[in-house]
Write a structure and sequence with these properties.
binds adenosine-5'-triphosphate; 401 residues; 5-stranded parallel β-sheet; Rossmann fold; ATP binding; hydrolase; metal ion binding; 9 strands; alpha/beta
């Protein structure tokens, strides 16, 4: 048995990576037949799938997803086992609670979280005296890793690479309207004999289309949910992209109840405003997949997102969606304040100051950009944050000066 971990490990710009992978592929395709060998490859990069999954190479493709809550409890227990053995865990640590707070964390991220919490706790050994950092000899007596260390690491150190911990902020009626419409369509998809049921989430860039599509899919709680986005296909040729998209649909057809999110559909179609140009091959593939019924007894919900409705209209894709839901940007000061209050970024004094400054002014900003701006100013000194935040809002066209 041969196991290759991190098949795609980078060799910087040395060219080592390509040479090694090509050599391995050549071995797998080789003229000499090797009997009684089991080869297992592991990768985090779906974009090299196609070459690896060709007939005669790796035959079975198994996806290892993110751990669920009970999985995270087990992983946390593994990484805190030695500390527990040496009685270094404070009684206020509740592994179940940490597992609930680490949604979308991978096993490696949970390990990093434990390490970050540990290093935060180790800070208690440091004592500053006369502007010098010294080791505090008394700190060791009652030293333990406690809940606050984990909370600090969660807040400041480790964020999950997949998914988003922030989720959806219900900043106003427009968000509720999208989610309610989504829930209604899910109910129809569950009960309807005629699927695929498809709908389009349309809104300007950064208005939160992907996050809302994911939230709707999460609410659906379907056993199979897959996001098809250009991020995973950047290095693919046109035909490989089609194959990749087709594979997602083939996998979905195996489950009795599936949901596919086609994110930024104009980007999947290789749309270029110059020309305008797009891939005819991908467009035909998508059109066919969007209109083909899944096998008997299987139900499929397809959620597409776009910020270029006009492009879909031009490509004659728009009319296959009977339902279209608009995702709004934030256009009122009340809604902006709801976001700010929800993420606890500013003090109540700062929020009052902000309210006075933006009251009655016209405003138009997508939630994605707004959250980025808040994150930027959050790190600053308290007395500078609101001034900087307002100037960012004005610069980016969100707020009238
Ligand atoms: N009510 C909300 N609706 C949507 N996203 C929200 C909301 N509240 C918070 N968010 C966060 O805002 C971000 C929205 O980014 P997202 O990628 O979904 O936007 P998008 O419109 O798909 O962007 P793009 O046009 O660049 O593809 C996400 O990080 C999401 O977690």
């Amino acid at each position: 048995m041969v196991i290759f971990t991190s098949w795609t490990s980078q060799g910087g710009n040395t060219g080592v990576h390509d040479t090694v992978v090509n050599q391995l592929l050549a071995k797998m395709d080789g003229v000499e037949q090797l009997n009684n060998n089991l080869l297992i490859g592991m990768t985090y990069r779906e974009d090299i799938y196609m070459a690896l999954l060709r007939t005669g190479r790796l035959e079975v493709d198994t996806e290892i997803g993110l751990p669920d809550e009970s999985g995270r409890v087990q992983i946390l227990n593994i990484h805190t086992a030695t500390m527990r053995e040496y009685n270094e865990l404070a009684s206020d640590i509740d592994i179940q609670e940490i597992a609930a707070l680490t949604k979308n964390f991978s096993g490696a991220e949970i390990e990093a979280l434990v390490r970050a919490a540990w290093s935060k706790a180790m800070d208690r050994f440091n004592k500053i005296s006369n502007n010098k950092v010294k080791v505090d000899p008394d700190a060791g007596k009652n030293w333990k890793l406690c809940r606050a260390d984990f909370m600090h690491a969660l807040e400041h150190d480790i964020k999950p690479a997949f998914g988003s911990r922030i989720g959806i902020i219900k900043w106003g009626k427009p968000v509720n309207r999208v989610l309610e419409a989504g829930d209604m369509l899910i109910a129809i998809a569950r009960s309807s004999g005629r699927t695929p049921l498809k709908f389009l989430l349309e809104g300007s860039v950064g208005s939160g289309k992907t996050a809302l599509a994911v939230q709707i899919a999460k609410n659906a709680d379907f056993p199979f949910v897959k996001i098809c986005s250009i991020k995973k296909m950047r290095l693919f040729h046109e035909a490989e992209k089609c194959e990749f998209i087709k594979k997602i649909f083939d996998d979905a057809y195996k489950s009795p109840l599936s949901c596919i999110i086609l994110d930024d559909i104009e980007q999947l179609l290789d749309f270029l405003p110059l020309g305008p140009l797009f891939s005819n091959l991908i467009s035909q593939t998508l059109l066919s997949l969007l209109t083909t019924s899944p096998p008997l007894g299987h139900k499929l919900l397809i959620i597409c997102t776009t910020s270029r409705e006009d492009v879909l209209q031009e490509m004659e894709i728009l009319n296959i969606f009977r339902t279209k839901i608009h995702v709004s940007s934030i256009t009122s000061s009340e809604h902006l304040i709801n976001v700010v209050e929800n993420i606890d970024a500013f003090t109540s004094n700062e929020i009052e100051q902000l309210k006075k400054k933006i009251n009655g002014k016209s405003l138009c900003i997508g939630i994605k950009k707004l959250l980025k701006q808040i994150e930027m100013v959050r790190q600053m000194e308290e007395n500078q944050r609101i001034v900087k935040f307002l100037s960012l809002l004005e610069e980016e066209g969100g707020l009238e000066p």
